[in-house]
């Protein structure tokens, strides 16, 4: 039976609706809730600010606008709006309607290489998780230049997308009890770039006390695409790609605030041409450490590996892991651009993380590159006939190495438990492998576990006894039990 419900938050009243899962379980849905002021005009490139209150009852019945983006992987057109800092809340029960025990809260951070993605309900439906009696929160955050550009100084210190997430977590602390959620039992979880964000929150002083458990799926701040060591160079190259050449941070920031967000997104391919070398992954703007001169609260005071070595991370229970064949995601690029295979054969070091390169010992770097090539390809060149090896190498370099190191360091230095998983089920709900043209390869692809955690509208209903739905039951039970009890 459908109906409406009204909840009072610090900013004002929200009208949501009562809906049912396919299995007849009722829950309450509140969508498009603003958790910060729109980051427009003078607030572009600034840390988020508290949302304005409103009078009367605000409808929370539809998803908020996604943040400005173009999905390079799926070749989607530009979409989004700068007024995009919205979150959704899904709850089995509202306290004002009946006495209820506060439930564990799970807060989701979507992936998308820090440049695309949103939490639209058609892709991140709450039904599977809700049926396990938890409260789910999903959020948008600023992407691309708007979320992650940094001038490397106090003008635009960077990490605004991550600071958006902190603001959403603060909103949860202030308001989630009104939706039946327990602010003292919050699990942060995310996948890919979202998993990296989860790990960065473990390292951030800004996030202290805002969550109590963490699940980082296929993402780590130690991945080669997750952290920018030279954000200033990238910011000024970006300005040059837009036709504005300067070495003054304030002038660059003032100019970039005048540019339409669509042009900011479309300029990225041109800006890539200023890069001296190919960057691993599709990320361009990404998280970075912030200058100590920053006038804002600092999200990340140092490089992730430095903070981890110094034990400067939150000691909370952690699940981390990956899918079996992460690297299938990479075949789309080489299938669409066969010339890349020749380029990689000529300069294999383009596939190797730059962090291995030491100016003090370039001979050792070339030695390491040769050893990596030998390990995966023997004496063969990369070709369309041995793409399985390319996939294995790509998955190890881009995802598994960082995730494994993350688990190893946390388990050695943290007093809280660390759990490691590999998702191996290759079923009909896996969408990513098909989307990137990798169906002929064995195992699940990067992102293929997500439809086993979230309801996806485009997927047809399956028999509860099917292997796919048994896998849904298993992973959702594992994730929600962890959220409830650790």
Show the helix and strand layout.
Elements: E1 3-8, E2 13-20, E3 26-34, E4 57-59, E5 86-91, E6 103-109, H1 127-130, E7 135-139, H2 144-148, H3 160-175, E8 181-191, H4 193-203, E9 213-217, H5 231-241, H6 249-256, H7 261-266, H8 268-272, H9 304-309, E10 318-323, H10 331-336, H11 339-346, H12 362-377, H13 387-413, E11 418-423, H14 432-435, H15 467-485
Parallel strand pairs: 2-4, 6-7, 6-8, 8-9, 9-10, 10-11
Antiparallel strand pairs: 1-2, 2-3, 3-5, 5-7
Characterization of the model:
InterPro entries: AB_hydrolase_fold (IPR029058), CarbesteraseB (IPR002018), Carboxylesterase_B_AS (IPR019826), Carboxylesterase_B_CS (IPR019819). The chain is α/β, with parallel strands linked by helices. The protein has one domain: Alpha/Beta hydrolase fold, catalytic domain (Rossmann fold), CATH 3.40.50.1820. It contains 15 helices and eleven strands. Strands 1, 2, 3, 4, 5, 6, 7, 8, 9, 10 and 11 form an eleven-stranded mixed β-sheet that branches. The longest helix has 27 residues.
Offer a concise description of the structure.
With 486 residues, the chain is α/β, with parallel strands linked by helices. The chain has helices at residues 127-130, 144-148, 160-175, 193-203, 231-241, 249-256, 261-266, 268-272, 304-309, 331-336, 339-346, 362-377, 387-413, 432-435, 467-485; strands at 3-8, 13-20, 26-34, 57-59, 86-91, 103-109, 135-139, 181-191, 213-217, 318-323, 418-423. Helix content is 31%, strand content 15%.
């Amino acid at each position: 039976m459908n109906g409406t419900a009204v909840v009072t938050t610090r900013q004002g009243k929200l009208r949501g609706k009562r809906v049912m899962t396919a299995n007849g379980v009722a829950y309450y849905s509140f969508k498009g809730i603003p958790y910060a002021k729109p980051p427009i005009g003078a607030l572009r490139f600034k840390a988020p600010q508290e949302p304005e209150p409103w009078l009367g009852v605000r409808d929370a019945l539809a998803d908020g606008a996604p943040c400005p983006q173009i999905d390079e992987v799926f070749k989607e057109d530009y979409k989004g709006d700068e007024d995009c800092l919205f979150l959704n809340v899904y709850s089995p029960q509202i306290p004002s309607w009946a006495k209820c025990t506060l439930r564990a809260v799970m807060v989701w951070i979507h992936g998308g290489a820090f440049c695309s993605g949103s939490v639209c309900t058609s892709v991140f439906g709450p039904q599977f998780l809700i049926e396990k009696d938890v409260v789910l929160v999903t959020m948008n955050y600023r992407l691309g230049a708007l979320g992650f550009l940094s001038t490397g100084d106090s003008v635009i210190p960077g990490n605004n997308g991550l600071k958006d997430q902190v603001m959403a977590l603060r909103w949860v602390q202030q308001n989630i009890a009104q939706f039946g959620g327990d602010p003292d039992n919050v699990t942060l979880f995310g996948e890919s770039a979202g998993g990296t964000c989860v790990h960065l929150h473990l390292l951030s002083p800004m996030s202290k006390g805002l969550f109590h458990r963490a699940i980082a799926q296929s993402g780590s701040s130690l991945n080669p695409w997750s952290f920018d060591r030279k954000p200033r160079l990238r910011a000024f190259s970006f300005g040059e790609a837009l036709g504005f050449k300067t070495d003054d941070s304030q002038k660059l920031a003032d100019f970039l605030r005048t540019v339409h967000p669509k042009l900011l997104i479309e300029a990225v391919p041109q800006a890539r041409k200023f890069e001296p070398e190919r960057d691993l992954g599709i990320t361009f703007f990404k998280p970075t450490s912030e200058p100590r001169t920053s006038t804002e609260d600092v999200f990340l005071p140092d490089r992730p590996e430095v903070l981890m070595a110094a034990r400067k991370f939150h000691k909370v229970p952690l699940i981390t892991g990956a899918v079996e064949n992460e690297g299938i995601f990479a075949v789309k690029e080489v299938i669409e651009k066969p010339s890349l295979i020749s380029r990689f054969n000529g300069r294999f070091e383009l596939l190797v993380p730059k962090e291995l390169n030491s100016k003090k010992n370039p001979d050792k770097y070339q030695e390491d590159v040769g050893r990596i090539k030998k390990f995966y390809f023997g004496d063969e060149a990369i070709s369309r006939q041995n793409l399985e090896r390319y996939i294995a190498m790509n998955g190890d370099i881009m995802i598994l190495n960082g995730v494994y190191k993350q688990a190893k360091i946390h388990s050695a230095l943290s007093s809280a438990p660390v759990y490691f998983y590999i998702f191996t089920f290759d079923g009909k709900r896996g969408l990513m492998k098909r989307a990137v043209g990798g169906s002929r390869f064995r195992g699940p692809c990067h992102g293929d576990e997500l439809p086993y955690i979230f309801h996806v509208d485009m997927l047809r209903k399956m028999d509860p006894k099917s292997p796919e739905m048994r896998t849904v039951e298993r992973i959702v039970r594992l994730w929600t039990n962890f959220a409830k009890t650790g």
